[in-house]
Amino acid sequence: MSRFEMPLGDTALAVAYYKVEDGRVVLLHTEVPQELSGLGYGSMLALGVFEALRRGGKRVIAKCPFMSSHAAQNPEYAVLLDG
């Protein structure tokens, strides 16, 4: 399993775990430290992840409910989704 990382200050990280399956990026799980939850860091991470995948011409399967919801709310990312 691999992950995208977004540093949050000196010690904390927001992460989005993924794997590559049949040439598609499968987004599995997103984590933001609980003490920083609700501050928009998850959305910033999702934006960075989807932008990187779009620039790379990748197709995406969003098994992570947070990433799936983010894509559904942003049509420019929803077009990347398979399944």
UniProtKB/TrEMBL annotation:
Give the InterPro entries listed for this entry.
Answer: Acyl_CoA_acyltransferase (IPR016181), Gcn5-rel_NAT (IPR045057), GNAT_YJDJ (IPR031165)
Q: Which Pfam family, just one, is annotated for this protein?
A: Acetyltransf_CG
Query: Which keywords does this Swiss-Prot/TrEMBL entry list?
Result: Transferase
Q: Does the keyword Membrane apply?
A: no
The residue ranges of the N-acetyltransferase domain are 1-82
Which GO molecular function, any one, fits this protein according to its record? transferase activity
UniProt keyword Lipid biosynthesis present = no
Protein name (Swiss-Prot/TrEMBL): N-acetyltransferase
Instruction: Give the lineage.
Output: Bacteria, Pseudomonadati, Pseudomonadota, Alphaproteobacteria, Hyphomicrobiales
